[in-house]
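Hi F.,

I've been meaning to write this up properly since the lab meeting, where we talked about keeping a consistent format for the predictions we share between groups. The idea is simple: the sequence comes first, exactly as it goes in, then the structure tokens exactly as they come out, then a line or two of notes. No screenshots and no reformatting. I'm using this chain as the first example so we have something concrete to point to.
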Amino acid sequence: MRSKVIIGAAALSILALTACGGPAGTTSTGEAEEPAETGASSEHPYGLEVVESPEFEEGSTMAELAQAGSITIGTKFDQPLFGLVGPDGNPVGFDVAIGSLIAAELGIPFENIEWTETVSANREPFIEQGQVDIVVATYTINDDRKQVIDFAGPYYLAGQALMVQQGNPEGIMGPEDVEGQPVCSVEGSTPAERIVEEYGANLQATDVYSNCLDPLRNGQVVALTTDNVILAGFVDQNEGEFELVADGDTFTDEPYGIGLQKGDDEFRTFINDVLEASYEDGRYASLWEQTAGVVLPTPEGPAVDRY
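Output, unedited:
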């Protein structure tokens, strides 16, 4: 069965967790679990109020999750500010907060969220196979991915950038300067594909972005490339070691969305409604300020795409 992540203190270091098993709300034998108690009975780590006894159309994903009293959410475990696991095994960050916002609107308290690590290469398979209910993992919306899954959102607009050693010893001023040079990124990610196809870099691929840090420190690669907000977290966490090229100027638009099963229009509409409501009532800004806002300015909530 999937291991359940229990609420604990936020911390910044990386551990590995794995999860497997049947869909949320079932035991390993396939028997339905008793619904968990919901409501604001315990203090939420992000200060969210959990909706008590929400009502949804029978047979909808929302009704099934609310009845089960739990939800499985895929997120990154190695990205400061957005999704990072501490020594107690608890992920923290803006993606985690957004996932917990959706859970709260389903009547599911934070302690009943099951967090599963989703790296760039396995996000679509995990959604398609039902190993997670949603993925909130710095997940760029693009047309290729929309062939196999659906997206709610976007809930944040990022952009691709470059991170180099402090002092920029290679003199890299933009993506045009990495042609033929070794650049580290994550296999299966949009930034990895773009830096090769559009800028001719020699990709040094890995499974998680944190594995790029030592090669960059040691000069085995000249840069790490991914979204600016992820890189800003690494610069903040490793003071004096790295810097962003051109003060973090971006050369793409990367709209972050929430991945879910393709064709589940009701669930996608529900999540989009939750996001829009959070923009208006201040919860979105509050979640940002508690997480990524310790380093980055508070953004406006972007318009969702109800395609």
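Notes:
Confidence is low (pLDDT under 50) at residues 1-41.
The longest strand covers residues 149-158.

If this format works for you, I'll send the rest the same way.

G.
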